[in-house]
Prior knowledge:
The protein folds into two domains: 3-75, Winged helix-like DNA-binding domain superfamily/Winged helix DNA-binding domain (Arc Repressor Mutant, subunit A, Orthogonal Bundle), CATH 1.10.10; 82-131, Ferric-uptake regulator, C-terminal dimerisarion domain (Dna Ligase, domain 1, 2-Layer Sandwich), CATH 3.30.1490.190. 42% of the residues lie in helices and 19% in strands. The chain is built from six helices and six strands. A hairpin with a 7-residue loop joins strand 2 (61-64) and strand 3. The model has no long low-confidence stretch (mean pLDDT 88).
Amino acid sequence: xxxxxxxxxxxxxxxxxxxxxxxxxxxxxxxxxxxxxxxxxxxxxxxxxxxxxxxxxxxxxxxxxxxxxxxxxxxxxxxxxxxxxxxxxxxxxxxxxxxxxxxxxxxxxxxxxxxxxxxxxxxxxxxxxxxx
Length: 132
């Protein structure tokens, strides 16, 4: 489904601003609200955050916690969950497949009677380029 179909499916208005933001997000890996504000100065801060919240609520955007002090986001890739490694030297964010890790986490949660609504695994360190 494209963004127009997704919005209509959730009974949300299809606006040029939402389509423009989604297209921009589609060309990024991980981003913060301030990245949007830098590239779209004509969109108010409140509107940026309203649209981020909407996209998270309808399941097309995922919050990613990378220890920056502000939330990062990425488009939700249906059927392909992954986690992140962040270089504390250069800031590069790399994704990795987390299938086995997720299975272990969900098994632990189930044994504890805990229902998981969201999870994230992040690794912080130094990338191979910065080690050299």
